[in-house]
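As the next step, I selected for study one protein, both as residues and as discrete backbone shape codes, as given directly below:
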Amino acid sequence: MTTLVAGVDSSTQSCKVVIRDLETGALVRTGRATHPSGTEVDPQLWWTALNEAFADAGGLADVSAISIAGQQHGMVALDIDGRVIRDALLWNDTRSAQAALDLIAEFGADALAARTGSVPVASFTLTKLRWLRDAEPANAARVAAVALPHDWLTWRLRGFGPADAPDAPLGPVLEELTTDRSDVSGTSYWNPRTGEYDRELLIAALGHDAVLPRVLGPAEPAGVTEAGALVACGAGDNAGAALGLGARSGDVVISIGTSGTVFAVTDAPAHDESGRVAGFADASGLFLPLVATLNAARVLDATAKLLGVSHDELGRLAEDAEPGALGLVLQPYFEGERTPNLPDATATLYGMTLASTTREGLARAAIEGLLCGLADGLDAVVAQGVSAERLLLIGGAAQNSAVQNIAAQVFAVPVTVPTPGEYVADGAAVQAAWALTEQRPTWTVATAATPAVDYRPEIRAQYAARAL
């Protein structure tokens, strides 16, 4: 009889479920549901979407184990009765930018990097708790526990939740909250070197102590569902993707989704006092130095909309332009930026001449600007001692042939494009299998494209000359 495991990617935009064969990793069926847009969301909507995605995938009756990976950093604040106090602030909510600066002023960037692996920015949970303390003190005073999105969903999946919720028969047992190394390392109140919470930082941010989720190991189960399926520890989204891709030493993953990320699996933790590289943990027991940008695929969305074309047509226009777009440079900070830390920045188009200001030039500048920002992130990760021998380019935008070919010109490292897949959910499925069997599976990941190396350093140089 076939044993099935399920993996979930509860991302910013949607909830995706993959159900795979335990032995081979073969995809059996999938499900999906949408999430609301915005930078703050009622977590109950994630729970509704999770159940809709399960139903769309044919249900969980025949599934033996499940794991949930989710968007990092989001602040889910719970009261003593397990109720959500206010809408969760998501990673892309920048209202806590001043709170990040205040915490850095109080503790010092070097000290924070040493204690938590990262210098906090507006994305991180610690800064959102300080914002809550300062902006909504009555809500902050009610906080009895703090969870991340995947923590809260895992807790609910196991039957816990608000005392008055009919689908939470086990009640508001806050001490049953669990998390994993990868997701908790993005809070800025957990030390990836020691594996311990830094309660002093939590209290400095929130104003008082609170229940925090128990941190589980990579193969350690969180519990079971009401139906008896094993529930694994879960992961942050990027760590889930690394696990789903089977990323190894020498691989650097570049993901172009709602956000852009550059990360690698390493044996040693990162410690970047500049704050460009976050020293996260991974989902396998190792570490995940990571650079994140706020502006990624939406740069292409905005440009395609402006030009009135599809993404495929945008790519064709870009490939009709010369490398460097005759000097046209788009610095794509449409939503501010996280790396570099410029929350109030806006996008700027440079080098407009009669020759460069064409539909083709703008399409090319948009793709080059997006990729140059990620190339800056790659440089920062490599500066932390990471060996970059192969780039794994993933995310929806990575399937555009123009993005692939221009990436081979922007990056000085060979690019591989894995077959399109839900790699965050796949990584969660790997976790589910690992928790069920106590052995990490080695499922095969196929390759869709390997664009020929065509490095053009002048593209990066032109972009760097316009950098803020």
